[in-house]
Amino acid sequence: MTTPISPTFADVQDAAVRLRGHAVVTPLIENAALNERVGGRVLLKCETLQVSGSFKFRGAYNRISRFSDDEKARGVVAYSSGNHAQGVAAAAQRIGTRALIVMPHDCPQVKVDGVKAFGGEVRLYDRWTESREEIGAQIAAERGSVLVPPFDDFHVMAGQGTAGLEMAEQAKSLGVTFDAVSAPASGGGLVGGIALAFEALSPATEVYVAEPAAYNDHALSLTAHERVGHAPNPPPSFCDALMAPRPGDVTWPVNSRLLKGAVSATDAEVAEAMRFAFRWLKLVVEPGGACALACLLNGSIDAQGRVIGIVLSGGNVDPGLYAEVIAGRR
Amino acid sequence: MTTPISPTFADVQDAAVRLRGHAVVTPLIENAALNERVGGRVLLKCETLQVSGSFKFRGAYNRISRFSDDEKARGVVAYSSGNHAQGVAAAAQRIGTRALIVMPHDCPQVKVDGVKAFGGEVRLYDRWTESREEIGAQIAAERGSVLVPPFDDFHVMAGQGTAGLEMAEQAKSLGVTFDAVSAPASGGGLVGGIALAFEALSPATEVYVAEPAAYNDHALSLTAHERVGHAPNPPPSFCDALMAPRPGDVTWPVNSRLLKGAVSATDAEVAEAMRFAFRWLKLVVEPGGACALACLLNGSIDAQGRVIGIVLSGGNVDPGLYAEVIAGRR
Question: Which of A316, B262, B264, B309 has the fewest CB atoms below 10 angstroms from its CB?
Answer without folding.
Answer: B264
